[in-house]
Amino acid sequence: MAGVVIVDHAFSESPPPAPKREVPAHAPPADGIFSVGDVDTPPSLISQTPIQFGIEDDRNFQRLPQRDRDLHMWAISKNPLRPTGETAAECTAEVAKATSGQAWPLSAKPLLVVSTKNDSPGYPELQNRLLHLSRDSRQMIAEHSTHMILVDQPEAIVTAIEDVVDSIRNHAPLN
């Protein structure tokens, strides 16, 4: 491996999930008058089932050439599992074990982190931690993209790869 491009890594450590709560039954009260507390409960489908969105749900997916959409759907059919908080935690633990005690696990290999303007809790800190994997790192913000950079702004990924390749070929730092 001569260099790395990380595209919108969005998983970060999060607090443990809240305990599941029982969804109250919606029997009418004895006096027949519902209070806001009686009726303002989330539907169990939404409150108890994680909602997952994939690339095919992105607003720009339909703009891709049909062949690209077909290839994506084929790939998903081969491995339909999507990352979860648990798989992210397992991955994080493996990386921590492999890089324990290393200030710069990638040394000075060129590392370009392509991020979005995501303002989710922990996202900026995660992007910063990724940048600290190498002494030669740079962040690129895909200004007009959601989490689906490869659909919304594929040219940002191409530019990132070209920048890393140029850095390697020219023996020049990214910064």
Task: Describe this protein's structure.
This protein has 175 residues and is mostly helical. It has seven helices and three strands, in the order E-H-H-H-H-E-H-E-H-H.
Short description:
With 175 residues, this protein is mostly helical.
Provide key terms for this protein.
single chain; 175 residues; mainly alpha; 3-stranded parallel sheet; 7 helices; 38% helix
Topology diagram in text:
Elements: E1 4-7, H1 36-39, H2 44-48, H3 66-78, H4 85-99, E2 111-115, H5 123-131, E3 137-141, H6 149-152, H7 154-169
Parallel strand pairs: 1-2, 2-3
Shape: globular
Strand composition percent: 5-15%
What is the string of helix and strand elements?
Answer: EHHHHEHEHH
Number of helices: 7
Low-confidence stretches: 38-42
Radius of gyration: 22 Å
Overall SS class: mainly alpha
